[in-house]
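ARCHIVE CARD
CATEGORY: sequence design from structure
SOURCE FIELD: tokenized fold
FIELD CONTENT:
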């Protein structure tokens, strides 16, 4: 063992197996005792009830994830360790996935999937947007951002706490940090041969939903000659792919954000796809209006925001997904294609599929699942942490 021994966290009996396997989240109810009085953000050593070493992690008494685990050797979480993890994540994108670093958008670091629980990094051409969902990593911000800039040669980094977890982690939502410079004007990136403007400083999440990259193009294959309804369209990705790669007859994108609709319109113009139509409005209100006017579509994409941020939201989220999909089927023509998505990690694939069975029952229409898709490969899932498999994208034929 290198250096001094950090404070020790001892588990309750029969709680160690997931952590020996590499799961990075140690919740408070699994802890028997904490020795050494660690403070928020301090490094700790986690051991089994029998005293066997498991891993090194970072402590946060304010969070239900009391320890996030990072290193399964009894060695320190020092600068060399963080450098190794950052470089390994970037090498996966560069050398294995071969995602181009310049002129495009990619997820550079995906938290648990890259062994860096609490750190998410997206790259847009020469700039990075960083979200911290761990206070302990936010406390190490200067080191991590320096490593990122050194490894990528980027011009600037915008870093901020993740809004959905800031309160639970004891972080200030307004704690934004800028390294280098971020452009005021939107950054232009290319994805699937289509050009998008990304508002690096003010966009939703980190600016563009890279996780749907492959799905946007895959869904286009079902759109030939069809009328497409793109719900929660944000920057218009499904619509533009349907027109460019799927030769859709027409597209209508709907989003409640006026800013998103303006951005989608600009993206359509950038690609010479001005026939893409976008409408600002509440999705349920627009669906009711379309149904009332007897409108029908051959393909409908439902890609709503996260419905379940915490476990207590799960049942309400499932009711919300069911209501949304039933409403969508009212304007889907017989034999049409429903593409329904969930980015709520707390709703697993089996549960989401069961919800769709309830939709078929309520709508009295048979639903055939043709493809079960997920997030793009730059959002890898750690085998020991299946919670990282958060994005469900089901391509269905509806009779």
């Amino acid at each position: 063992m290198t250096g001094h021994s950090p404070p020790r966290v001892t588990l309750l009996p029969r709680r160690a197996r997931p952590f020996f396997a590499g799961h990075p989240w140690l919740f408070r109810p699994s802890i028997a005792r904490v020795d050494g009085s660690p403070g928020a953000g301090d490094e700790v050593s986690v051991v089994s009830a029998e005293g066997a070493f498991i891993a090194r992690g970072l402590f946060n008494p304010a969070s239900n994830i009391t320890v996030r685990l990072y290193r399964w050797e009894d060695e320190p979480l020092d600068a060399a360790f963080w450098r190794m993890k950052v470089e390994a994540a970037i090498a996966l994108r560069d050398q294995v996935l071969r995602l181009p670093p310049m002129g495009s958008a990619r997820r550079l670091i995906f938290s648990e999937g890259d062994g860096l629980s609490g750190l998410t990094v997206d790259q847009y051409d020469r700039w990075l947007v960083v979200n911290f969902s761990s206070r302990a990593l936010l406390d190490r911000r200067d080191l991590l951002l320096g490593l990122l800039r050194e490894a990528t040669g980027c011009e600037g980094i915008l870093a901020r706490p993740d809004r959905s977890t800031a309160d639970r982690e004891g972080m200030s939502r307004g704690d934004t940090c800028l390294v280098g410079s971020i452009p005021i004007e939107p950054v232009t990136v290319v994805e699937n041969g289509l050009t998008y403007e990304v508002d690096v400083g003010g966009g939703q999440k980190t600016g563009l939903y890279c996780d749907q990259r492959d799905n946007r193009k895959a869904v286009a294959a079902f759109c030939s000659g069809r009328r497409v309804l793109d719900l929660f369209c944000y920057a218009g990705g499904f619509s533009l792919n349907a027109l460019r790669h799927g030769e859709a007859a027409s597209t209508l994108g709907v989003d409640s954000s006026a800013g998103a609709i303006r951005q989608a319109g600009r993206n359509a113009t950038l690609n010479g796809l001005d026939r893409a139509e976008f409408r600002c409005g509440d999705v349920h209100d627009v669906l009711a209006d379309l149904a009332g006017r007897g409108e029908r579509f051959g393909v409908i994409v439902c890609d709503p925001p996260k419905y379940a941020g915490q476990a207590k939201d799960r049942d309400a989220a499932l009711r919300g997904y069911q209501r949304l999909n039933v409403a969508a089927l009212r304007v889907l023509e017989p034999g049409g294609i429903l593409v329904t998505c969930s980015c709520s990690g707390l709703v697993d694939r089996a549960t989401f599929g069961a919800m769709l069975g309830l939709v078929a029952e309520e709508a009295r229409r048979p639903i055939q699942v043709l493809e079960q898709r997920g997030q793009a490969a730059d959002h890898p899932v750690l085998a020991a942490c299946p919670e990282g498999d958060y994005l469900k994208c089901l391509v269905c034929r509806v009779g």
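CARD ANNOTATION: The first strand starts at residue 8 and ends at 11. The domain at 8-71 is CATH 2.30.130.10 (Archaeosine Trna-guanine Transglycosylase; Chain: A, domain 4).
SHELF: design records, drawer C
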